């Protein structure tokens, strides 16, 4: 892309000089500025492949932003010089020579830059480079500045030589906008600013709906060259073991990557949340309230009593029939799905197979072991603080 732009800038500059077209020379300067922006992307891509050193633990990504900031200053100064030249020539327009050649160069520029933009779009999507896609969008807008030159030269051919100088002013404005936008983005990135507030809200909403997340406390993102680094603090829906925390962190990172594809690293701090109200599911033989006799089978249990407990005191309870009790296959898994639908966060069982265990585990539902010496629900509720947590299948 950069090599093609060098070739294109040379053609427009040479033809513009010999034909006397100020707008073609201005467009050559504009293309020269694009060479620097393409080089900035190339430098960023090259540095992104370099391993982090002792002094640069976060990598060399921001070198691209430093280059872009330097380039933006050059772009703005070039725009100033173009405006000064255009204001001089607009009062005393010059008749163009080699008009056909100048028009051909301008048309060739439009076609080449459009082809380059599509090529960069294709490769950017292929390798997942947001910087290359952004550069492709920039190239696409450059097509319009080249079209301004086509119009200016065409107007000059039809006896309106002042259009050439007017075209320079239009291109100068485009160059100014490019320089200011690049400078602003580079400076803000170097200061770790994150301006896309909508993406923060989308991430918060997505992570809030992940099972096991109670709430999102804080989200911090910062761009570094081509990539994004992030930090998150979330409160889990209860206390979990290390394996569950790792699984939850990985799921959160995947959710953030769906919104920020060029996420390089996300640090997730999971703090255990205190559940104020426990909704406990207990398998029972008959629907006899708190005097119900316990069932020792998770899938074969005909009924489940659901108890809401706060500060070890019963707030309310209700009983539901187990829809999976009469199934021939996958009774345990189907029972686990039923209990998950009931919104429970604790299940008390005697034994549990691998299928239902992983179903509960993945849904962040805590499993407590039912003791052998307890026969009814009311007695079992009083022993909940003493019950052992089940951390693996028992069958």
From TrEMBL:
CDD domains: MTH1175 (cd00851). Keywords: Membrane, Transmembrane, Transmembrane helix, Transport. The chain crosses the membrane at residues 66-86, 98-119, 140-160. Residues 2-191 form the Cation efflux protein transmembrane domain. Its main location: membrane. GO terms for molecular function: monoatomic cation transmembrane transporter activity. It comes from the Archaea. InterPro entries: Cation_efflux, Cation_efflux_CTD, Cation_efflux_CTD_sf, Cation_efflux_TM, Cation_efflux_TMD_sf, CDF_Transporter, Di-Nase_FeMo-co_biosynth, DiNase_FeMo-co_biosyn_sf. Residues 195-272 form the Cation efflux protein cytoplasmic domain. It is a multi-pass membrane protein. The keyword Transmembrane helix applies. Residues 291-377 form the Dinitrogenase iron-molybdenum cofactor biosynthesis domain. It is found in: Membrane. SUPFAM superfamilies: Cation efflux protein cytoplasmic domain-like, Cation efflux protein transmembrane domain-like, Nitrogenase accessory factor-like. Gene3D superfamilies: Cation efflux protein transmembrane domain, Cation efflux protein, cytoplasmic domain, Dinitrogenase iron-molybdenum cofactor biosynthesis domain. It holds the Pfam family ZT_dimer. Belongs to the cation diffusion facilitator (CDF) transporter (TC 2.A.4) family. This is Cation diffusion facilitator family transporter. It comes from Methanococcoides seepicolus.
